[in-house]
Amino acid sequence: GQNIDQPTEMTATEGAIVQINCTYQTSGFNGLFWYQQHAGEAPTFLSYNVLDGLEEKGRFSSFLSRSKGYSYLLLKELQMKDSASYLCAVMDSNYQLIWGAGTKLIIKP
Amino acid sequence: GAVVSQHPSWVICKSGTSVKIECRSLDFQATTMFWYRQFPKQSLMLMATSNEGSKATYEQGVEKDKFLINHASLTLSTLTVTSAHPEDSSFYICSARLVRTFQETQYFGPGTRLLVL
């Protein structure tokens, strides 16, 4: 079966760095996505990785290792507004997105 | 770019009525759109894949006669919840697939909150 695993909840301190991990097992791979979802809102696109390595975009970076079926989202200089759920999703061989359950990130002052 | 709108953002209706939700890609053409449902504190659940000019593909357990999907143009897909009941109350979110060279991304609409009384 297809499976995406990510921690349910994480807590971090304002100004710090946090890494949210995602492991996956899917039928085929056409890229991995990270989305941010604030409570009561729709997800917003953060990043896309299809090749191994690190993609940096401002305070957010995303890493992919296809051989390990592993990705992480790195958030630096955390701000209170970063409190949200972070969704990992993998596009399978049918170009369908397989969604993780999301990681709720709580930022404390 | 890559803006997706949804209308309405909020709807309250009586049990037994039908509700139509529109999803539009504002600055790109989307041959494929997706409809999701999300209950409070739960993950996104894909309901169906909407393809322009053809019938939608429904996920297992989703009643196609209850959730009617029409993707009549490259920028518009509609979801109609027929004979809505309180258990259909949820957050309905659409997304549109944008295909660029070497990348394919889904962009989400802002969602529609449905409350069935």
Q: Nutshell version of this structure?
A:
Chain A is mainly β and 109 residues long.
Note the main attributes of this structure:
A: 109 residues; mainly beta; six-stranded mixed beta sheet; five-stranded antiparallel beta sheet; 0% helix; B: mainly beta
Description:
Chain A is mainly β and 109 residues long. Chain A is built from no helices and eleven strands. Chain A has strands spanning 3-5, 9-13, 18-25, 32-37, 44-49, 53-57, 60-65, 70-75, 84-91, 97-99, 103-108. In chain A, strands 2, 4, 5, 9, 10 and 11 form a six-stranded mixed beta sheet that branches. A five-stranded antiparallel beta sheet of chain A has the order 1-3-8-7-6, with no helix packed on it. The termini of chain A are far apart. The model of chain A has no long low-confidence stretch (mean pLDDT 94). By secondary structure, chain B is an all-beta fold. Helices cover 0% and strands 56% of the residues of chain B. Chain B has strands spanning 4-7, 10-13, 19-25, 32-38, 45-51, 57-58, 67-73, 76-81, 90-100, 103-108, 112-116. In chain B, the strands form two sheets. In chain B, strands 2, 4, 5, 6, 9, 10 and 11 form a seven-stranded mixed beta sheet that branches. In chain B, strands 1-3-8-7 form a four-stranded antiparallel beta sheet, with no helix packed on it. In chain B, a hairpin with a 2-residue loop joins β9 (90-100) and β10. The model of chain B has no long low-confidence stretch (mean pLDDT 91). Chains A and B meet through β5 of A and β10 of B.
Determine the oligomeric state from the structure.
Answer: heterodimer
Strand content of chain B: over 45%
Total beta strands of chain B:
11
Order of helices and strands of chain B: EEEEEEEEEEE
Estimate percent helicity of chain B. Answer: under 10%
Q: Note poorly predicted spans of chain A.
A: none
CA radius of gyration of chain A is 13 Å
Radius of gyration of chain B: 14 Å
Whole-Å distance between the termini of chain A? Answer: 40 Å
Distance separating the two termini of chain B: 37 Å
Query: Which structural category do the helix and sheet elements of chain A fall into?
Result: mainly beta
Described by the principal axes of the CA atoms, the overall outline of chain A is globular
Binned, the helix content of chain A reads under 10%
> Uncertain regions of chain B: pLDDT < 50 for 5+ in a row?
none
Main beta sheet of chain B, described?
A: 7 strands, mixed
Percent of residues in beta strands of chain A: over 45%
Shape of chain B: globular
The tally of beta strands of chain A, per DSSP, is 11
Question: Kindly state the mean pLDDT of chain B as a whole number?
Answer: 91
Q: Which secondary-structure class do the elements of chain B indicate?
A: mainly beta
Described by strand count, sense and barrel closure, the largest sheet of chain A is: 6 strands, mixed
